[in-house]
Amino acid sequence: MTGKVNAFYAQSGGVTAVINASACGVIQTARENKDRIGKVLAGRNGILGALTEELIDTSRESARAIEGLRSTPSGAFGSCRYKLKSIEENEREYHRLIEVFKAHNIGYFFYNGGGDSQDTANKVSQLGRTLGYPITCIGIPKTVDNDLPYTDACPGFGSVAKYVAVSTREAALDVASMCETSTKVFILEVMGRHAGWIAAAAGLAQEHPEDAPHIILLPEVPFRKTAFLKKVKDTVRAHGYCVIVVSEGAKYRDGTFLADAGGKDAFGHTQLGGVAPTIAQMVKDNLGYKYHWAVADYLQRAARHVASKTDVDQAYALGAAAVKFALAGKNAVMPTIVRKSDKPYRWSIGEAKLSRVANVEKTLPKSYISKDGFGITAAARRYLEPLIAGEDYPKYKNGLPQYVQLKKVLVKKKLPEFKV
What mean pLDDT is predicted for residues 362-378? Predict the structure, then answer.
């Protein structure tokens, strides 16, 4: 490589309310080290941008625009669900990555995503060693599911947890006011394929034993229809209404999802959806209660207006740490959050090897689940509460939050077209 080395940054998988805060941390820290890093070239639509040589020149964006990323939800550069196979299975794509890196003098690779994305970053680091190309790879954690190991929390989770807890509390007040003559059961479906962190966070809405949510259905606890229906009936008799929060990954003892939509996504995961109406129909058929259900879906992960300040701060810090790690000569690692104490909540930056993080899911510990399987424990509350703490509101104009829209100018292509 000649001259200052450029960096490649990309966003991967489902986006969050704070992934752009990590991007902000990467770009601002790189600009602070312009004597060692040239440009930060962002992949248009994740790793696909590297393969198709669609590289966004972030140096064309103003300092104000980059700062605005910190309070803008979604993925500013575009994301993708695309998993690189092993070098043996798809040597063609890996050679293409090296060609693009060489053509644009890229020596740093920052990949911002979940477990599958950390696997990609690890494979690219192996690629550099295998093909003799000097590439420094740092993974940046991100996932609303909070299921990455070796980090206290994952950026994106704290904000979705806050949104779900707030929504549960507010919806419960609505149902409570109407239950005498109308709806008696309300069901909120939230994300979480195999890990119930988001559903568990709804438990923070409960201040007193009689408060909602009255039932939380977690992937970690096999669904028992008889016990569930009894709990619903007992709750309605006692309080007049019942609020249920269910993870999309809730399943029976044999591992079958309550709402298997059929098919697979690009990462090979079973596509889920519709567990709320499934549960609602079960309640209607067996108990006859009038119900309403809602699916938080994209709303929960896009709600930057109610983001957790802890989450925003950690997302930014991990992006900045990734650049510092690379400049310090570290490779094939992911910066992590290390919890120092619960009250007051104190944390610092640690690190984990990508080879240990890749494709490993961290599920809810048994100690966080109540004995009956329908709620959370005090230990879970101690863990969760600091992660939703604090407010970090975006700027508002005419009653609406103002979010940044980048110019996203692409650098000139130097290589032949490549079909993915």
Answer: 97
